[in-house]
Amino acid sequence: MRGKRGAPGKAPSFKKLRIPRKWNNLSSRLVLFVRRSPLHLILIVICIIWLIPTTGLLISSFRPRSLILTTGWWNAFTFPYRFTMENYLHVIQRANMGRSFFNSLMIAIPATVMPILVAAFTAYAFSWMRFPGRDTLFLIIIGLLVVPLQMTLIPILRLFNRLHLTGTFAGIWIAHTAYGLPFAIYLLRNFIGGIPEDLFESAFLDGASHFQIFYRMVLPISVPAIASLAIFQFMWVWNDLLVALIYLGGTPGVAPMTVTISNLVNSYGGGWEFLTSAAFISMILPLVVFFSLQRYFIRGILAGSIKG
Amino acid sequence: MIVASALLAVVAVFGVPAGLTLYIFLAEKAVSRLSSHRQKGVRPWLWVAPGLILLTVFLLYPVINTIIMSLMNKDSSRFVGLLNYLRIFTERDMLIVLRNNVLWLVFFTLVTVTLGLLIAVLSDRVKYESVAKALIFLPMAISFVAAGVIWKFMYEFKPKGTPQIGTVNAVLTTLFPSFEPQAWLFNPGINNWALIVVGIWMWTGFAMVIFSASIKGVPKEIVEAARIDGAKELQVFFRVTLPLIKPTIVVVTTTLIINVLKIFDIVYVMTNGILGTEVIANRMYKEMFNFLNFGMASALAVILLVAIIPVMLINIKRFGQRGGK
């Protein structure tokens, strides 16, 4: 692959010089490497720049306050090499981060599970049933995909106030379920609509009902798409600040980590030892999900953009 | 309290799918009693009902309601016509808000698309492609809030002469000894740019992942043919690859525009909109909770929607084309 992508005209000229084979290989590689060094240089520099901010946060979160405030994080590996878990203990015990981690889970898990079946029902009907207005309705859903959430905040907040759903987990679950639906329906419709028609025909010939076809055939086949969807929705809800801020308001007992951290930023100002460790706690789960399920995550992104 | 809410979550996680299954089971049972002609008319609506009801209550109805509220006064008790909009387009601090959104829209989108494309093209040619891509994509996985903390720390400022603990000031003062350390988030000339950089850092990975997939989809034969014809790498890129991935560029650009118009968290966490950094979404939040001016907040939301409508139409058209095939 390297040879092809380098300069096709170069390799033969080395043979003419009658350089021993080994040398030929080595020197042409060297030439290739030097020729391509700007490429490597640019890419590696970009990667380093991209990595520095997160690295700085991670290292600082383990440094004692006195050192964070007087020396840069890059000095952590020079004298006096002092690291501590104190910051983490403090934010978990006293800055409500432990409780917030629990709350984030409490919000994100149901809000991820709830929209899946609702979206799958809708996507199934949109793909394999005929009814008047079907295409128009689907276009409206595509339109809703880009409606700014901000458009919905005030009416829904008023509705929630009347139903006493503000500041409750149930309220935010329903809100996230509904907000996630346009994308979920869109993604699943693309997938379920792509299942070969023959499968449905033979299932109907065998006398299967829609209920059976949906649960025994469509759902199992759609597992990869549902996995992408679930990861996407989970990350979205986990990282969300605005929806939580509005519908959970200032209730500390139900605040997820995003809300707690943004409060910490306001109250701690320069308390970097707490801010860095709190931020890292909120990143742990997304990073684990990202590195272990990267493929599904990226597939969800691609499904939402390229195929559409 | 904790136990009770945990129990409730368990009920939601298992109960909601079970309830939905029971619903569709009973609905199908009821439908099967109808004549086969009636079945065809009724069944689809039963399947789409849960989804459509949620979409109507949480998206469709609020959108209409917000548009109406934007024409009313503070507490929606009196009709004021276009007064809220008039204020947005004439008052000085509102114009700054709009200007900031335009800055974000133009520079964030331009830089993110260009950088994403550059990294996708470069990483396509090296052996450590997957590592490089994972590093660039990583910020996509974390929240804007965490990113805000990360970058606030990057931008941390100490007066000249004292050791800089913020990476940006430290690097610049080391490289250029005459450089004056900057309070990046508080200096009105640069703070918007400092915030936009954070957005770019987060979203470049998104653009890159999609471009990368698209570039891999360009047929190898076409690229090789161009190379055999003596085209230089840059020519191959601009004359062959770029035209072929143009539809993807449109998709990425529109997606970025949709997201950048709604930008909220970065500004909320890093500056809370002070010193000329406020954007529409932050102003809206303030109008809602600090000034309790629901008319103005709604008008700001409507402006977001209007700005997004062209993008929405592109989206719908794109889908229409695909559906036609």
Protein architecture, described:
The complex is a heterodimer of chains A (308) and B (325). Chain A has 15 helices and no strands. Chain A is mostly helical and 308 residues long. Chain A folds into 2 domains: 2-86, no CATH class; 89-305, MetI-like fold (Orthogonal Bundle), CATH 1.10.3720.10. The longest helix of chain A has 40 residues, at 21-60. Mean pLDDT of chain A is 82; it is low at 1-17. By secondary structure, chain B is mostly helical. Chain B has 2 domains: 2-69; 88-324, MetI-like (MetI-like fold, Orthogonal Bundle). Helices cover 75% and strands 0% of the residues of chain B. Chain B has 14 helices and no strands. In chain B, α2 (36-69) runs antiparallel to α14 and α5 runs antiparallel to α8 (191-216). Chain B starts with a helix and ends with a helix. The model of chain B is unreliable at 321-325 (pLDDT under 50).
Order of helices and strands of chain B: HHHHHHHHHHHHHH
How would you name the oligomeric state of the polypeptide chains in this document? heterodimer
Q: Quick one: CATH superfamily of the largest domain in chain A?
A: MetI-like
User: Strand tally of chain A, please?
Assistant: 0
How many strands, what sense, and barrel or not for the largest sheet of chain B?
A: none
Overall pLDDT level of chain A? 82
Structural class of chain B: mainly alpha
The poorly predicted ranges of chain A are 1-17
Helix content of chain A: over 70%
The most extensive interface between chains reads: A-B, 118 and 118 residues
Low-confidence stretches of chain B: 321-325
The number of helical elements of chain B comes to 14
Distance between the first and last residues' Cα of chain B: 55 Å
Q: Can you give the mean pLDDT of chain B? A: 86
In which range does the helix fraction of chain B lie? over 70%
Question: How many separate structural domains of chain B?
Answer: 2
